[in-house]
Amino acid sequence: MATWNLSTAVIHPLVLLNVSEHTTRVLALTKTGKSSVPPFVCGALLGLQTENRFEAFMSFEFLYEGASQGNGFATINPAHFSQRIQQMEEVFPDNTFIGWYAVNTDTTITPEIAKIHEQLIRQYPSALLMVFDAALADGAAENSATQGRGFSLPFSIYETRAPGRVDSQKLLWYVSGNSSDTPSEYYVEASTNREGVVMDDLIWASQLVPIQVQLDSGEAERVAVEHVQYVARPTNADMLNSDSNVPSVSLNASRMATFLVSLRNALDMLDRDIALLKTYVGDVISGKAVFDPEVLQLVQRVLSNRPVVLDDKFFDLAASQEETNFQLASYLASVTSVAGAVRDLSQRSNTALRHGRTKHAPYVNPVQSDGMFAWGPSMGDMMSAFGARGHSGRGHGRFSHI
Amino acid sequence: MQSNSSSGRAGSALKLFELENNILPLNQCDEELYCFDEEARTQQLVEAPWKSNPHYFRKVEISSVALVKMVMHARSGDNIEVMGLMLGKVIGDTMVVLDAFALPVEGSETRVNAQDDSYAYMVDYLEQCQATGQKEPVIGWYHSHPGYGCWLSGIDVATQALHQAHEDPFLAVVIDPKRTMSAGKVDLGAFRTLPEDHASGSSGDGGSNNAETGGYQSVPLSKIEDFGVHSAKYYPLEVSYFKSTLDQRLMERLWRKHWIKTLTQSPLITNSEFTTQMVNEIAEKIDTFNRDSKKGVAYNQILRESDAIAQEITQGHKSQALKQRLFCDT
């Protein structure tokens, strides 16, 4: 990217799922003719801004007012907007308005979107704009033609630059709608106050610049999102059919299986990415690919970091302690379960004996006599001891840096 | 890059038209689910088949967005119980949860109850949902039980019974954020209460088939009494989850960026506190059992708990071992 800038936007999956839900709902309503409003999907992004890092945790919908009123361009309802913000801040006090989203069939800005952005930056001069690409390329049908899009995230985020004086021609693309092409640079008018205009062809405007985007999730979010990924079924006919008794297989799969599958998938992705980098580096060496110093530098950095911990005795110690903890826990669990099984057996045989040849059989009451859990207190002590040790979580942190 | 036709405005109108018609993956079922049908709802309320049969509702379908919202909200409360409401509809004997939102209420221990000012919040919020086309009514409430499993306490039962009496169809969902984190799997239960005069013997058929937890709930010793007293007054519903076609494609795309998290996060470290607590809990239960086996602690329950915790630790260890083999072996 030609423009140099340092801002980063971090988007959480919840925001994307919310946008997806909003889009689906609006389209469903429009298709069945239950909505009078044209299908324009937009809403607010809420999150945190620390210096030039924006992090969006959640979103809500704008009340969109159709293009019929006023100057022919759509607006959002300001009363609804401010009330919603207040509500969200009451429940999630850390989050503030950081920008907004609009849905399109690619990630470019349309005149409609620019018009709304102009309305918003009067109140929030640094508002971000996320354009969500709802025409997601199908993952399965992906081929070389769509590969570029398939690998990128399905949205772009634009930052509003501090306003400056620019040629009014640059605003024509959305003000009059006369421009025949999508512009290479997006400018929106920063203020309606035209007193500052020195010459007629200069206008006070802000540029919209695409910024770097990252995807992040909290741990609870990751678990929930993975659940959506593997357990949730796509909508299908049996869901609406109340008679169907189709058992969903994934729900019954054991926890361990689910866990191992997600690990396997992650390794698969790692493998694919490494293979991709390897091919690229190979191609650069053989002169088939373009030499990109930035990419190669990153590869170099990763490689030099690779043997993170070798021959570190603290690391080994922590690892072996963890191993011991794990083995002890499994061992205790097996002991407990064997004890349980033995108790079960003794109870059953006692019952059988009581009803059978009662007089000659020895009878042990597992409850009244010291029974099968006689060693229980000492096992309890062992467990508490284990618990206390597990608590201190020594150098475990090292693993997470790998 | 797509170029706009002669007039910019007409051009984008055309784009939106495409968006509406063929580009978006929207199937018949998505339409049926996400489109609110006022008439169908009125019809259902008139018929109200759930009034004659207390076990009428059998299944719950939760949308991806509702699930993520609820789990994150529950987690954000940490040790404090949080609550919110769910929006959705009824299809046959299934309650479909389409969306959820948080309420500004924080409970403590086993008491969660919406206060008066939160009602005002709720009414405002719902009005605004209506305005943006989200016309589904409230179909239930959710709250969190951090660390003590998914079941309804006495107060929860009372709250739920009240709602079921006055605004049925109504559903109660309980999430345990701590167990969700520790197991790496969403721990969630959905319940409906049975009427007062309903024979308590029915707990046999419904009491043990909660699909999500494999039919058992491990309840801490301190709460076992509360659990035992009220467990016959409600029944669990079978919970499943769905995602729209668009969600499906989005998830496929996101996974390309997301997998790193599976490798970098370590459940052993993040859950060490919870694991310790669980192990202590099991030890305590064994003690109680030895002293007096009639006190409501069933030994097979202890077994299942110890199995579960051992399995969680095994999972954590497996992922660490895998990472070690991958990155640290020379």
From TrEMBL, chain A:
<dbReference type="InterPro" id="IPR024969">
    <property type="entry name" value="EIF3F/CSN6-like_C"/>
</dbReference>
<feature type="domain" description="EIF3F/CSN6-like C-terminal">
    <location>
        <begin position="219"/>
        <end position="345"/>
    </location>
</feature>
<comment type="similarity">
    <text>Belongs to the peptidase M67A family. CSN6 subfamily.</text>
</comment>
<feature type="domain" description="JAB1/MPN/MOV34 metalloenzyme">
    <location>
        <begin position="7"/>
        <end position="120"/>
    </location>
</feature>
<dbReference type="Pfam" id="PF01398">
    <property type="entry name" value="JAB"/>
</dbReference>
<dbReference type="Pfam" id="PF13012">
    <property type="entry name" value="MitMem_reg"/>
</dbReference>
<protein>
    <recommendedName>
        <fullName>COP9 signalosome complex subunit 6</fullName>
    </recommendedName>
</protein>
<dbReference type="InterPro" id="IPR000555">
    <property type="entry name" value="JAMM/MPN+_dom"/>
</dbReference>
<dbReference type="GO" id="GO:0008237">
    <property type="term" value="F:metallopeptidase activity"/>
</dbReference>
<dbReference type="GO" id="GO:0008180">
    <property type="term" value="C:COP9 signalosome"/>
</dbReference>
UniProtKB/TrEMBL annotation, chain B:
<dbReference type="InterPro" id="IPR000555">
    <property type="entry name" value="JAMM/MPN+_dom"/>
</dbReference>
<feature type="region of interest" description="Disordered">
    <location>
        <begin position="195"/>
        <end position="215"/>
    </location>
</feature>
<comment type="similarity">
    <text>Belongs to the peptidase M67A family. CSN5 subfamily.</text>
</comment>
<keyword id="KW-0736">Signalosome</keyword>
<dbReference type="GO" id="GO:0000338">
    <property type="term" value="P:protein deneddylation"/>
</dbReference>
<dbReference type="InterPro" id="IPR037518">
    <property type="entry name" value="MPN"/>
</dbReference>
<dbReference type="InterPro" id="IPR050242">
    <property type="entry name" value="JAMM_MPN+_peptidase_M67A"/>
</dbReference>
<dbReference type="Pfam" id="PF01398">
    <property type="entry name" value="JAB"/>
</dbReference>
<keyword id="KW-0645">Protease</keyword>
<keyword id="KW-0862">Zinc</keyword>
<comment type="subunit">
    <text>Component of the COP9 signalosome (CSN) complex.</text>
</comment>
<keyword id="KW-0378">Hydrolase</keyword>
<dbReference type="GO" id="GO:0006508">
    <property type="term" value="P:proteolysis"/>
</dbReference>
<dbReference type="GO" id="GO:0046872">
    <property type="term" value="F:metal ion binding"/>
</dbReference>
<keyword id="KW-0482">Metalloprotease</keyword>
<dbReference type="GO" id="GO:0008180">
    <property type="term" value="C:COP9 signalosome"/>
</dbReference>
<dbReference type="GO" id="GO:0008237">
    <property type="term" value="F:metallopeptidase activity"/>
</dbReference>
<keyword id="KW-0479">Metal-binding</keyword>
<feature type="domain" description="MPN">
    <location>
        <begin position="60"/>
        <end position="197"/>
    </location>
</feature>
<protein>
    <recommendedName>
        <fullName>COP9 signalosome complex subunit 5</fullName>
    </recommendedName>
</protein>
